[in-house]
Amino acid sequence: MIASLRGTLIHIGVDHLVIETGGVGWLVYAPRTVLGAAGAVGEPIFLHTQMIVREDAMTLYGFASVAQRALFESLIGVSGVGPKVALSLLSSGQPDEIRAAVAQGDTARLSRVPGIGKKTAERLVLELKGKIDLKGLPALGPGATPAATAVNSDLADLLISLGYSGAEAASAIGALPADAPEDLEQRLRLALRHFGSA
Fold it and tell me: Whose CB has fewer CB within 10 Å in the chain, the N or C terminal residue?
């Protein structure tokens, strides 16, 4: 399996790059965010990659980070979501935004992506909500400050380590009041109260 590729960028297409390494030009499909940040033809480039082998083709997909590749792998694990649709979804925003949309059950945000209808958006939420990695997610509560965002990320990790699912952690964080203190211990108390009243 090809996990990464380092070489010289020799072509930028509408939905792919061609990277030359060791005298071989590799065609690598990538999200628009990766294509836009690829740099100029002739410059060195490094991508994390995922190879998908099918009966009729071997296709390479490229990503800017391990987190982006992991999200791609999660997305194509959902029934009815192929690599093309997963790339379209990854082209619609940063991995954290997409993970937050899934964790919050935001089917309206997901179904705005070309190739994803309402049913596919619902399936994404249903199949991924409890499995999606909440680490580093933006704050899910209203009126969050950068400090609250960092605390909420730690809080999500803490709740998951206590045995709650990713969806339950997202729900508790989303229910925090806008004026919740930016202190992990106090936020944990509020989150646990949320579970007590649920």
Answer: N
DSSP 80-136: T--HHHHHHHHHTS-HHHHHHHHHTT-HHHHHTSTT--HHHHHHHHHHHTTTS--TT
- 3 state SS for 168-196: HHHHHHHCCCCCCCCCHHHHHHHHHHHHH
Structure tokens at 19: 């990277």
Tell me how long the chain is. 198
Cα separation of 76 and 90, whole Å?
11
- What are the tokens at 124? 């994404």
The residue written with tokens 């020799």 in the block is 10
Say if residue 76 is exposed, middle or buried (CB neighbours under 10 Å; 0-12, 13-18, 19+).
middle
Distance from C-alpha of 68 to C-alpha of 6, rounded to nearest angstrom: 17
At 51, is the secondary structure helix, strand, or coil?
Answer: strand
pTM: 0.66
Gap between the terminal Cα atoms of the chain: 45
Degrees (nearest 5) of the Cα angle 149, 96, 81?
150
pLDDT in tens, 111-163: 888 888 889 989 998 888 767 655 555 444 444 444 555 677 677 778 777 87
pLDDT 10s digits, 155-175: 777 877 787 776 677 777 777
